[in-house]
Amino acid sequence: MRRLNSSLLAQLDNVRVPKYPRDRLQTGMVHIGVGAFHRAHQATCTEQVLNEGDLRWGTIGASLRTSTVRDALAPQDYLYTVCARDQDGFEMQIPGGLVNMLTDATSVIAAIVDPKVRVVTVTITEKGYREANRTASAAGILVSALARRMETRAPLSILSCDNLTGNGQILGESVLALCDAPGLASWVRDQVAFPNSMVDRITPRATAADGEWLTAVTGYTDASPVVCETYSEWVIEDDFRADRPEWEAGGATLVGDVAPYERAKLRLLNLSHSLLAYLGLLKGCQTIHEAVDDALLRAFALQTLDGEVMRHLEAPAGMDVNAYIDSVLRRFANDAVPYRTAQVASDGSHKLPQRIFPTLKAAWAKGGAAPCLELTLCAWLQTLKASAQDGASIAYDDPGAEPVRELLRTHDDPEALVQAVARDTALWPEFPEAALLRMGKTFARLTQVGIDAALAPLLTR
Ligand code: CS2
């Protein structure tokens, strides 16, 4: 069986391949965190820029945690297949913009110091923003690179592409907090931009079955294919210090203020994704499409969005929120791209503060309750309880939730548990007492009667 590499490109007819000579690419970007999402999203947008003839934007990829992707892609000349699938069919593309991959901090720093690089893009997941390790975190590596880059006086833009409100701003603040070399902080403030961006494309981890499917359809093997939906959206704050790829060619929107787009996406799409993941896990759903096909869960998700989230959301001008919600639920139902509930559930301790807390706090501040969102947080607790007490039935990764798991092992009383999470962990900052009392009762009920009976009384239609 042939394996994907440069020599294969000319022989493929059902896969879109680079329209430009890859050996003429110049390196203009470094990307930190070459996971599936980067390759499905930013890389395909950049590919359009390259296809239109601007060859200044080849990308050096950095994978600092593991060399798995590099080891898979190096023998393939850094080529990989992006398989976009939905109910109507599929389209496949091999982007060619990745020119090299580095896995050690020293080489990554050297790549970022090179003045030919004008843009660094970053996907380090929500938890990557909490690490301020001087040598190993993304912020630490950026600071080391910027300290040397300052000598070249070459400005730089560092574009964050993770699901966080104010992602660029947070990254900029983490970098500035570590800038202790003389003059560095003020140089960074003047010469380095940290634009925010809203990113959207559903991209679950590819499985062995996806690899086999790809081989059956194309006749070649790819050791690291990417599977995603056909939909893709990227809204970028137009605040760059140096030049940048004309991502508009690939469908990106450049705006003055990304915040309304980020808020809408996190509080509607990501929130309902998490909701379906936790409630779905409690009902035994393995995938998000199974969860959204469950009539009760779907009604509950809709009611949460319509009844609780929308009223506190300042949506982007001109956005039809109802149409957006419909399209989100349709995208979740896409069974051609199965997304495991356990994958969406993972790292909830880092994701939920972005997705649920702002709406909850807005509701509470007005003296109200948000019963569906409060139940969703209790469902999160219940999945952690199952994983803490009986790992076999519900298992997913969330090291940040370990303090909650610890409490769940020692507290039998649900109401006391809710109080303890608020008091003894840093996970629920400033939750008002009245809300905690309500959530204690909700969690107790959920524990006693199960998810269907707990959510049914909340459904008003
Ligand atoms: C998901 C996101 O895994 C998750 O937490 O909610 O990765 C989601 O698929 C993307 O944000 C969609 O753009």
What does this 3D model show about the protein?
- The protein contains 21 helices and 14 strands.
- It has helices spanning 36-40, 42-51, 68-73, 105-113, 125-128, 138-152, 167-178, 184-191, 208-218, 259-282, 288-293, 295-309, 321-332, 341-345, 348-355, 357-365, 371-389, 402-410, 414-424, 433-449, 451-455, and strands spanning 2-3, 27-32, 58-62, 82-86, 89-93, 98-102, 119-122, 156-160, 192-193, 197-200, 220-221, 226-228, 233-237, 253-255.
- It is globular and about 65 Å long.
- It is 48% helix and 12% strand.
- With 461 residues, the chain is α/β, with parallel strands linked by helices.
- Strands 6-3-2-7-8-9 form a six-stranded parallel β-sheet. It has a three-stranded mixed β-sheet with strand order 5-4-12. Strands 10-13-14 form a three-stranded mixed β-sheet, covered by helices on one side.
- It folds into two domains: 2-255, Rossmann fold; 259-458, N-(1-d-carboxylethyl)-l-norvaline Dehydrogenase, domain 2, CATH 1.10.1040.10.
- A hairpin with a 2-residue loop joins strand 4 (82-86) and strand 5 (89-93).
- The site of D-mannonic acid (CS2) has 9 residues, from helix 10 and helix 14.
- D-mannonic acid binds at residues 163, 200-202, 270, 273, 343-344, 351.
